[in-house]
């Protein structure tokens, strides 16, 4: 049997285009899921994997629909599919086609090159940070002005201003504001328990 698998991260995205592509590719049964691709343990994906039998094929529009968790997750998924005696094929990335030996080999080589590139970028970033530190500079985002953060916290605690008004007035992002508020609450709780 030819299974189709389509996925989007949110309900705002429409699965119709994927559905049409999978139908045109001859999929007899299409599994549709709305969930992050970085999560490998997905209910609909798991249901499809349980139904796989010897000779079945999973077709995806592109491989990011079935796995966004990196090459390790993709290999784990392909291993699970192959243990069932089934195969996977991507419509967009023709090199992901485990039906034939050349496809399996090409997938392994390209996946390895992608992993190597990711590791090289990581290594270059670490080396650049080490060089910057040796020159007295610290990497990462610059720290926010403490006076602006204090003002943002006071505005938040006054319960007069909306988050949007606070971020526009101070330039402090919502994430930064919430992080400082959470730290403040945690510190207050810690001091309460010490007393």
TrEMBL record:
The lineage of its organism: Bacteria, Bacillati, Bacillota, Clostridia, Eubacteriales. Keywords: DNA recombination, DNA-binding. PROSITE patterns: RECOMBINASES_3 (PS51736). GO terms for molecular function: DNA binding; DNA strand exchange activity. It comes from Clostridium gasigenes. This is Site-specific DNA recombinase. It holds the Pfam family HTH_7. It comes from the Bacteria. The keyword Phosphoprotein does not apply. Signal peptide: none annotated. SMART domains: Resolvase. Belongs to the site-specific recombinase resolvase family. Residues 1-136 form the Resolvase/invertase-type recombinase catalytic domain.
């Amino acid at each position: 049997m030819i299974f189709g698998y389509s996925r989007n991260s949110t309900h705002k995205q429409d699965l119709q285009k994927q559905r049409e592509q999978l139908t045109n590719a001859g999929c007899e049964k299409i599994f549709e899921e709305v969930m992050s691709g970085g999560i490998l343990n997905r209910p609909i994906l798991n249901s499809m994997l349980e139904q796989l039998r010897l000779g079945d094929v999973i077709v995806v529009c592109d491989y990011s629909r079935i796995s966004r968790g990196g090459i390790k997750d993709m290999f784990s998924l392909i291993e699970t599919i192959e243990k069932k005696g089934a195969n996977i094929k991507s419509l967009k990335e023709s090199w992901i086609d485990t039906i034939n030996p050349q496809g399996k080999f090409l997938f392994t080589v390209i996946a390895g090159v992608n992993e190597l590139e990711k590791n090289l970028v990581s290594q270059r970033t670490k080396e650049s940070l080490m060089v910057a530190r040796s020159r007295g500079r610290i990497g990462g985002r610059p720290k926010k002005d403490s006076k602006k953060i204090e003002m943002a916290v006071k505005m938040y605690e006054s319960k007069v201003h909306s988050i949007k008004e606070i971020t526009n007035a101070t330039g402090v992002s919502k994430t930064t504001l919430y992080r400082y508020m959470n730290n403040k609450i945690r510190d207050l709780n810690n001091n309460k328990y010490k007393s």
